[in-house]
Amino acid sequence: MSSDSSLSALAGPTSTSAIWGNTPDMFNSQTSMKFHDQLRESYGSVCLVKGPFGANELWVSDPRAMSEIIMKGHDDFKQPDWFLTWLRLVFGPAVITVFGDQHKIQRKILNPVFTASHMRNLEAIPHRPIQKMKNVVDTMNETLQAIGIIKKKKEALENGTLDSEVAAGNDIMTALLKQSLAVAPQDRMTDEEVLAQVNGLAFAGHDTTSSALSRTLHLLAEHQDVQVKLREEIRQAYNSYGKNLDYDQLNSLSYLDAVCRESLRLHSPASAIAHTATSDWDLPLYYPVTAKDGKSVVTNIHVTKGTSIHLSIRAANMDERTWGEDAGEFRPGRWLEPLPPSLSNARIPGVYSSTMTFSGGPRSCPGMKFSQLEMKLVLSNLVGSFQFDSSEDNIKWNDDGIVKPYIQHKDGSLSDEPAMLLRVTVTEES
């Protein structure tokens, strides 16, 4: 038995490219999710993959190793430099792009914005479930206008005129400014940082929530029994509270919550997260793996500085050893009954329902609760009024960084843009 091993001792797939190694397999939008599944089935929760020019890289879904990376070593395992540079260019100094003390200060301001008391007051989510979305580029070009809004809101807050037309809004920007003013002056966010948070929440959150909603509707169309049961719960709530369900009423719908949890577990909008080790580190394993010699058992992996690491959200959320034999099935009922002891024993470091969907640790998704509320609100409006059925078109889910649906034509080609066709009919009593 080998208790401590370097990456080179691990088993792994054969390189498919002499130059790029397994990189084409890891990032091919049409086949990468299948590749993650094959790695999990063939090698367990950790294996060696080859990067460009033969570099050794680590693929991991082991709960203890992930905990070490995103919790204990969150400052020593960062996203790749090229990705962080791109994020900073797009969003600016947002909580997802900064580190160290700046990140701690921003989280200190952001976290209270998404508490239950604040969420009850937010008006950022419309009750109309279907609305036209502006083009991202056009919206980003309105940055100067947004800066003007920040200036007006700051003036209103500083003057104490919170009931004015500008400052009274129960929106995220106002909540951020109020919370920023509540901390010590040296910890307050600059206008640039406030704008970066709003951009990050609006645009990064839009793609992931859209993906989750699309996938859930697709699942409901394929599982009519689940859809019928969900509609019954929603309509019972309508009879009790009216059709405009508030924060607490939405969260009281246990089956709606179970459907959302199961959809997000089985089909996370992001399949994997890339990290780079900035220092040497030993990663203990919860699930030991067999080394490539076929005999030794690896329980600890030594990772050297500069090593690229691929955290597989998809594999962690679907591991049968953790979730049970039906881990690959869409079964919302699992959340309404006792979960298997193997799940609690694994101590998955995810911040949401023992899944890795929203990551975990200090750098977990700050807008998780907002995303959940938006998802529940849209689903309750849609499923409460419409029946969703599968269409004749085959839907192919590709991983474009965020998993998105495409229509697969009869010749095997895919639609140029993400799209999903379902049969939608108005239901009785809608």
UniProtKB/TrEMBL annotation:
Q: Name one GO molecular function term.
A: heme binding
Pathway of this protein?
Answer: Secondary metabolite biosynthesis
Which keywords accompany this UniProt record?
Answer: Heme, Iron, Metal-binding, Monooxygenase, Oxidoreductase
Record's InterPro entries? Answer: Cyt_P450, Cyt_P450_CS, Cyt_P450_E_grp-I, Cyt_P450_sf, Cytochrome_P450_monoxygenase
Q: Which PROSITE patterns match?
A: CYTOCHROME_P450 (PS00086)
Gene3D superfamilies attached here?
Answer: Cytochrome P450 (1.10.630.10)
Q: Where does heme bind?
A: C365
Q: Which cofactor does it need?
A: heme
Member of which family? Belongs to the cytochrome P450 family.
Name it: Uncharacterized protein
Source organism (scientific name): Rhizoctonia solani
